Amino acid sequence: MKRIIFLIILSSLAGPFAFAQVQVRGTVFDDNKEPLIGAVVLLKSAANNYNAVAGLDGSFSWQNVPSGTYSLEINFIGFKPYLESIEVSNTPARINVVMEEDSQVLGEVVIMGAANRGSDAEARKLEQMAKNTINVVSAKSIELSPDITVANVVQRVSGLSIERNASGDPQYAIVRGMDKRYNYTLVNGVKIPSPDNRNRYVPLDIFPAQMLERLEVAKSLTPDMEGDAIGGSVNLVMKSAPDEFEINADFQLGYNAIHFNRPFYSYDRSTENRLSPGERFGRRYEATMDDFSTRNLLINPINPLPDIFGGLTIGDRFMGGKLGVMFGASVQNSFRGADRDWYKIDVDPLGTGRPSLSSYQERQTSIQQFRMGLHSKVDYQVNRNHSLSLYLADFTLNDFEVREMISSDRDISPDNINATYLFQTRVRSTYSGIRNATLQGKHNLMGGQLLMDWSALASRADFDRPDNAIFSRNGGVENGIEMPQNIERRNPRRWEKHFDQDFTLHLNFLYNLDFVNLPSAYVKFGGMFRDKERGALFNRYRFDPNPSFQVQGVDWDDFTDVRWELLNPSGTLGHALNYNAFEQIGAYYLMTHLEVGKVDFNVGARVEHTNQGYVSRTTNQFEIPELNQIYTDFLPNFSMKYKPKSDVNLRGSYYKAINRPGYFEIVDGISDEDDEFPFKGNPDVTRAIADNFDIRYEYFPRANEQFLLGAFYKKIEDPIELLLIRQTSLTTGPRNLTPTNSGTALNWGIEMDFSKFFNKFGIRANYTFTNSSLTTIKSERVRENPDDESSQLILREASQTRPLQGQADHIGNLSLLYKNQTTGTDIQLAAVYTGERIEIVSPWLDLDIWSRPFTQLDFSYEQRLGNWVVFLKVNNLLNSPYELFVKKPRKTEQLDFPLQDSPGETIVQREQFWQSFRVGVRFKFNSI
């Protein structure tokens, strides 16, 4: 009762103030409905002054504003000041303001002060206006995210998952469950070569994220796009010159938590020979032990220095705005590590159909990554009708890796006091880079009725892995006592080089059909030609200890003490991995665009002619030394966009696309690298061809908000997958990963993408469900009489339907954002979920190797202080492990292997990468 009386009294006292003081709320937008985030809003009277900053949805508010007449003033860079007199009465007031852009004309070039390049609003507008189905990530979103490379960024896009490198960092994009081979990478709209030593896909972790103006992911194609993208394309639009002088710089320090638990292993690269003896002295040179350095193979455990990241972009316009110049540089030096448990797996030879574990490995990897990016873009507006641009870029990614491994083929239960081990140290330097020069022009001809654009591209990718050495020893435990190590035979040292260079020309024409009485109608036609050359060098030397028995602690303490005998002084320059590949692609297309009422139609086709082949230096009479594949593809294309409202689209499209084999995939040779399985080329593998269907509903309630709901269906003939196949027969010979055409595959899915903002808070979420099916013939080893365990073992074929390799059933992203314009605070918590998927396809029934569902949680915090920003970013907060497994239990007698504690499955690999922390500062200045 006392509480009720108190509330009545409190309400009575508050009543007069409630009627005298009210809430004033409002929003501020530009004429494109883009919220002007950060606009300064002032409310003034003779007695009171109030100020606010527009939030993420453009809203502002004040509480308890006394009644009276006020002057409302709103200011935002690039817009004319907004002034209005308002009356605040006894009822809540709501004010909706649309501000006018402040544009100025300099000569013949129009400069917009409110240039919104790189904003979320621009990204949403591009998605809305595109002819095909795309997703766009803005520079602003990238800046606020915890991501440092483009590979980190793509995993935030709906329908995209990533494949990781040896250090656990994202590296390749998987679009809609389609393996990385089914998409291509563009820089400023043109394709670039890859430094990958086998394939044509580009490692996205070579590109620093801060150089992007935006990231565009196309999930359907138009006829003016190259046709080898069944999954889609990833376009990196790099920063271009701003309207006024602008400079952005950042500096960061970081550390990986794995270094708190174990040392980082390093080596001296200064004594490393970048050229093999055969390269230095000629192909016929007989190498000696004096030609090989040893100091570079000494391993030192250290506590690494902090990671260092730095970036700078600076740009301006000159000559009255006609000439724009942008320069960017980025340097990243980081220390990564991974702890991996790995099992060598095969089918049980006794016919149970279960996996058999024959070897267990513990691996500790230490990788120093040096990443550098340099890019510049110059654009010149000749006049209103003609413009030219030149883009130059140089991207470098160097990995310096030490891998320590302990392996056992025997039972390795901790209770055992006797065991035999193989100890192996690998020292590997990898130098890779992409260099690009692109000259482009845009021209308005015939009074604007005919538009022409062209691109001339010269690009080169390099991969260099010198003196890749493995030092193998055997040892063990006897009666619980560790025994000295002895040197193994046939220790390899390898030199590998690859280059991939392109010369490409694109020419496009667009003819406006002015005589057609439609809002928009044109015909677009054009073509392209690419001449690609790829060269590869492989030179491997093998060494035996001489004498063969050299005991640790007696005959040697480290690698430099071991006495070696060179087994093959001539190297392996006659190996099939020494080859030259080539590819010429000529293409032409025709498409028509018609806007009929509320519907846009795009109809056309593309024709691509391919001449792909290789010539190898193999001396193996059982290998094919040269090969050509010549074919022509007709690729029809149709899309429509229905616009019932200005903020709603309904899309539908069909396109045919192909997927060409990688350059080394058709070379008849084996790359017996020291990874889990060797790789063998297949001269019989052919291109895959797919029919692709898309529909999507799009709603853009505000310029930075969206709701997208879509579905897709793909039918792929002869999809290319890497199958684990024995070299000689199903049961004998080494197992190799071999590219193989696998019948007909179906792939369909549903996508949802959502973003919404509430003043200081925002949410971004997307989800993709993907279902694919592919039926192939597999083998199983069974008893001739299943009821008689003594009956003969036989091989039997069986059909099995499974998902496509690399396709995850569920992919989800969730980002929670907080942005306080008044205090300058930005906080983001971002989660990525990737469902299970097949990593390796087995030739045996039910023995495919799957990756377990993976969740990564990242966090970022930023605080603005004038032109400066300080920030903290944390990746992999949950220290989520990466696991591979087989969906069958192992053979019953193998009960005490580590990690094998699940009765219904067999663990093949478990890897941990730990958390990464970064702190840094960012500086921004522009003269607008």
TrEMBL record:
Pfam families: CarbopepD_reg_2, OMP_b-brl_3, Plug
Span of domain Outer membrane protein beta-barrel: 574-880
Listed InterPro entries: Beta-barrel_TonB_sf, CarboxyPept-like_regulatory, OMP_b-brl_3, Plug_dom, Plug_dom_sf
Gene3D superfamilies: Carboxypeptidase-like, regulatory domain (2.60.40.1120), TonB-dependent receptor, beta-barrel domain (2.40.170.20), TonB-dependent receptor, plug domain (2.170.130.10)
Signal peptide bounds: 1-20
Record keyword Lipid metabolism present: no
Keywords recorded for this protein, A-Z: Cell outer membrane, Membrane, Receptor, Signal
Main localisation: membrane
GO terms under cellular component: cell outer membrane
Compartments it resides in: Cell outer membrane
Domain TonB-dependent receptor plug: 131-232
PANTHER family membership: PLUG DOMAIN-CONTAINING PROTEIN, TONB-DEPENDENT RECEPTOR-LIKE BETA-BARREL DOMAIN-CONTAINING PROTEIN
Stated name of the protein: Outer membrane receptor for ferrienterochelin and colicins
